[in-house]
Amino acid sequence: xxxxxxxxxxxxxxxxxxxxxxxxxxxxxxxxxxxxxxxxxxxxxxxxxxxxxxxxxxxxxxxxxxxxxxxxxxxxxxxxxxxxxxxxxxxxxxxxxxxxxxxxxxxxxxxxxxxxxxxxxxxxxxxxxxxxxxxxxxxxxxxxxxxxxxxxxxxxxxxx
Length: 160
Prior knowledge:
By secondary structure, the protein is mainly alpha-helical. Helices cover 69% and strands 0% of the residues.
């Protein structure tokens, strides 16, 4: 009996490659945003905002979480957009992942007022950071698709 699934080992390998590209781009973006955060905090003489984990191990863990999130985004993005050129699908995937990651990371401290401008601002910055991470990952994936370094996932009707 012939397997009619288009989730072949070749397709799964291609999804892993897309995930690796997205994970690496998310990690590099996280590093860049962290350095930008440190530079801005030096210039303004304030505590870093995005890198709330002050310890080296906390920053490394946050970077690894960004890489894993990017990897999962890349695999999912490949299955969402397929060979479709619908910008709403592409941007919707970025916004969905960005909001989920950004809102999940938002934990106001118990002594902070829930609706203070600083607390809300930090939450908005976290969401913005996530949106930037996944936007860069999507751009990297689409660039790799355009240059045929990676292959988009094909729908059943496109399989031959």
